[in-house]
């Protein structure tokens, strides 16, 4: 959970301020160079045949709850705009691409017209080429300018690995263009001796939002010639910029635009996104500019067979004697083993680094029992590896030397691994957009592909494998971000003022929240107004006020106790739950136990160990309502959205067996409470509704608690969040509402937009929650429906049937979905 990330005095000073669906597009084949095309697709087994073999083992067929067949599709070609330089077209053709897909040509046309544009098409649909061709053509034009350095372009990627991968692609494509195109990666790993050359001579700089925020913008005088000539800003994988991180990036881009204007440039923004709902609206929120949308995917795709797979129940018992399913990790390792034995090139996506290593190790162990020569053909791939290690794994997978890879999402974003036959996804990745992104890693050369989603033992995954329409008949999600969040806006106003004094004319660029935040920054003596401008008052760097990827604050250093070696850091907001005493910590494939956490010095001491368990923190939470922005009647109850203050305390942690998930024990912790001001959605029920639902006082707390857990588990289906991004509280009699109340809140200061999205989709969200609980096959509640892995009360009390009856009564009086512009109907 995220907490205070501003300097002393600012957190207390700030008070938080108060979708048209599109059908999803399935991952498609890429028009990349022909010499990288894998073996003839006709020689490969069909995806249906591969799935039949996977299902042939004992009890396997019953684990497939649904199979979706997506037919192949032919591509539609076009011609490049006549304004594209002939040398660039020739370079593209030299890579084996005779003609662009229709959407690529449209993107290039808009770029040359000076229109900011977002291309939102499926995986492997050639988005990179769509923006690269106009950029390279413009750089070539600029290289012939008689004076100055010529045109420049800036590329932003969410990860350093993706920027490095793109730089290699640009160098390969632009090699026939000579020195007219000079690409270079500029990030935290760039040697200092190379940085000055890049500032002076590179005309295509590839970096990430973090380096732009901390390195480039604060040093803008040294980048003046680059910024003066900036024609294009490419924002790759822009759907990843969501929530608080996306809100920070939106303000970083506004700072960039302000400095460009200072140097006389007005760059065109070219954005690439996985298929998403309302991509133009999301791109407008991110950049603050009008953006044209190109979402008609003209690339071809092969057949895709998509199976939903539910692991079986085991004889083990979890909390309160609940049945426990076989873990998605163990099931995925079995599937990867079987696919490797079949000779099927596969990637298994898993959410954690430890999970990737574990699946790889289990698969290698089982392959050794079949054929020892197969052991070296399976490996793990995750963040934390050296770049050369990642490239070697990618090459080995592409060549067929590797048949199986257990990977984190480090492989999800843009890395070209064409030639795969199958993808196994260990647990729903949080959004439909990410699901299709991962599934699209297979079939990237146009051949048929198999994708298998293996359900984890939680409410959302269980719901999805039994309600395939929620995946296959629904649009992908809208990107949720809120640049006006005062906790985001405040440090960026300070950073902007440090870059150039902030004037009245600048305020429109940064949004309407400036009027409320600026006086508070003045009162905190961070900014001082002189005549018509605000100035930064401190000696330290204003850009250091916030960490755009986390809660900020002083990071906790993770130190190996025996050697004093610094292993890494963790955000201050996450430290209580991730590096508490006794926590299991993973670093570069090694496992450590946290021996002590010193909050005053922000140091966690660890030592290497190999425990047979993982740890999960437990916390308790109380909540108070600060302001109700909007409320609507739901029968005699109410649905509300507004600002709240949450007091949270990590009180213990569970030890869970690695393979089975079995709870081995709970250990108490003594950590201080923390407060968070954020945004929440909440609903109340009245005595009449409780009577209607036959909810007695004895089961009221358990019914509310069960409904809260399940609704948190289901929200990622309706907002682009993870269940760990949000929190909840249920109270039989809340002091502010004087009624039984359930809250779901954003786990970030000022909110991240998730609770607001929940408010606007509340009827469908809570209907799906009720269905998930009611359809679960357990008797009294389990992790698949109402038990939560992070419940501070040990999942007690919970009442499954009461939750179903309670939600039924509540939804009977539910209004239609509130519109995004719903006016405030009252205060509470």
From TrEMBL:
Residues 108-294 form the Helicase ATP-binding domain. InterPro entries: DEAD/DEAH_box_helicase_dom, Helicase_ATP-bd, Helicase_C-like, Helicase_put_actinobac, HRQ1_WHD, MZB, P-loop_NTPase. CDD domains: DEXHc_Hrq1-like, SF2_C_Hrq. Residues 28-51 are annotated as: Disordered. One of its GO terms (molecular function) is helicase activity. PANTHER family: ATP-DEPENDENT HELICASE HRQ1. The lineage of its organism: Bacteria, Bacillati, Actinomycetota, Actinomycetes, Kitasatosporales. Keywords: ATP-binding, Helicase, Hydrolase, Nucleotide-binding. This is DEAD/DEAH box helicase. Residues 335-487 form the Helicase C-terminal domain.
């Amino acid at each position: 959970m995220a907490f205070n990330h501003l300097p002393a005095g600012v957190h207390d000073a700030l008070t938080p301020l108060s979708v048209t669906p599109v059908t999803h597009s399935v991952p498609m084949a890429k028009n990349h160079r022909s010499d990288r095309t894998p073996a003839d697709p006709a020689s490969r087994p069909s995806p249906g045949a591969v799935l039949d073999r996977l299902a042939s083992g004992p009890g396997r067929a019953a684990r497939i709850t649904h199979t979706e067949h997506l037919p192949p599709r032919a591509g539609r070609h076009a011609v490049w705009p006549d304004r594209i330089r002939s040398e660039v077209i020739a370079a593209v053709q030299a890579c084996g691409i005779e003609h662009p897909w229709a959407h690529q040509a449209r993107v290039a046309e808009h770029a040359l017209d000076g229109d900011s544009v977002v291309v939102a098409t499926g995986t492997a649909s050639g988005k990179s080429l769509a923006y690269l061709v106009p950029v390279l053509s413009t750089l070539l034009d600029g290289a012939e300018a008689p004076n100055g350095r010529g045109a420049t372009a800036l590329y932003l990627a969410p990860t350093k690995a993706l920027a490095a991968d793109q730089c290699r692609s640009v160098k390969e494509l632009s090699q026939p263009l000579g020195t007219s195109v000079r690409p270079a990666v500029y990030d935290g790993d760039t040697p200092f001796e190379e940085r000055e050359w890049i500032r002076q001579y590179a005309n295509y700089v590839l970096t990430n939002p973090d380096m732009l925020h901390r390195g480039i913008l604060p040093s803008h005088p040294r980048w003046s010639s680059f910024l003066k000539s900036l024609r294009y800003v490419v924002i790759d994988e822009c759907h990843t910029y969501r929530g608080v991180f996306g809100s920070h990036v939106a303000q970083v881009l506004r700072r960039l635009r302000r400095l460009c204007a200072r140097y006389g440039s007005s760059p065109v923004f070219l954005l690439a996104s996985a298929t998403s709902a309302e991509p133009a609206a999301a791109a407008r929120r991110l950049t603050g500019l009008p953006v044209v949308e190109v979402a008609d995917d003209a690339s071809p795709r092969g057949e895709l067979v998509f199976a939903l797979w539910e692991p079986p129940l085991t004889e083990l018992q979890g909390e309160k004697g609940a049945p426990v399913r076989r873990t998605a990790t163990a099931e995925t390792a079995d599937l990867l083993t079987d696919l490797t034995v079949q000779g099927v090139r596969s990637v298994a996506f898993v959410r954690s680094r430890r999970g990737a290593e574990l699946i790889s190790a289990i698969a290698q162990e089982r392959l050794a029992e079949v054929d020892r020569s197969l052991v070296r053909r399976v490996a793990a791939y995750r963040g934390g590896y050296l770049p050369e290690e990642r490239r070697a794994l990618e090459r080995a997978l592409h060549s067929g030397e590797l048949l199986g890879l257990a990977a984190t999402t480090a492989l999800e974003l843009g890395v070209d691994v064409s030639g795969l036959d199958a993808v196994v996804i260990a647990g729903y990745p949080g959004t439909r957009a990410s699901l299709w992104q991962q599934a699209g890693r297979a079939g990237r050369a146009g051949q048929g592909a198999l994708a298998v989603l293996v359900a984890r033992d939680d409410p959302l995954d269980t719901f999805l494998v039994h309600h395939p329409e929620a995946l296959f008949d629904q649009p992908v999600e809208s990107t949720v971000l809120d640049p006006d969040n005062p906790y985001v806006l405040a440090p960026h106003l300070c950073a902007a003022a440090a870059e150039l004094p902030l004037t009245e004319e600048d305020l429109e660029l940064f949004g309407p929240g400036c009027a409320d935040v600026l006086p508070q920054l003045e009162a905190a003596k961070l900014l001082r107004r002189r005549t018509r401008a605000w100035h930064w008052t401190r000696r330290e760097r204003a850009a250091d006020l916030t960490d755009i990827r986390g809660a900020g604050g002083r990071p906790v250093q993770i130190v190996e106790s025996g050697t004093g070696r610094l292993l890494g850091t963790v955000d201050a907001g996450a430290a209580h739950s991730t590096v508490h005493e006794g926590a299991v910590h993973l670093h570069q494939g090694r496992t450590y136990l946290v021996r002590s956490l010193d909050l005053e010095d922000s140091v966690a001491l660890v030592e290497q160990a190999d425990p047979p368990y993982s740890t999960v923190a437990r916390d308790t939470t109380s909540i108070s309502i600060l302001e109700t922005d909007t409320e609507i009647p739901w029968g005699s109850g109410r649905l509300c959205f507004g600002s709240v203050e949450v007091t949270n305390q990590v009180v213990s942690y569970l030890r869970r067996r690695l393979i089975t998930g079995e709870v081995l024990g709970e250990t108490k912790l003594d950590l201080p409470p923390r407060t968070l001001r954020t945004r929440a959605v909440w609903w109340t029920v009245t005595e009449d509704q409780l009577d209607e639902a036959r909810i007695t006082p004895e089961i009221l707390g358990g019914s509310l608690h069960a409904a809260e857990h399940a609704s948190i588990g289901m929200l990622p289906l309706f907002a682009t969040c993870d269940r760990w991004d949000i929190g909840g509280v249920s109270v039989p009699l809340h002091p502010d509402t004087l009624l039984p109340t359930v809250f779901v809140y954003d786990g970030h200061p000022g909110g991240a937009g998730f609770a607001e999205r929940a408010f606007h989709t509340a009827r469908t969200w809570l209907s799906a929650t009720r269905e998930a609980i009611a359809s679960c096959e357990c008797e009294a509640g389990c992790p698949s429906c109402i038990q939560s892995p992070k419940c501070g009360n040990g999942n007690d009390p919970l009442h499954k049937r009461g939750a179903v009856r309670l939600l039924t009564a509540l939804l009977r009086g539910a209004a239609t979905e509130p519109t995004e512009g719903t006016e405030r109907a009252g205060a509470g």
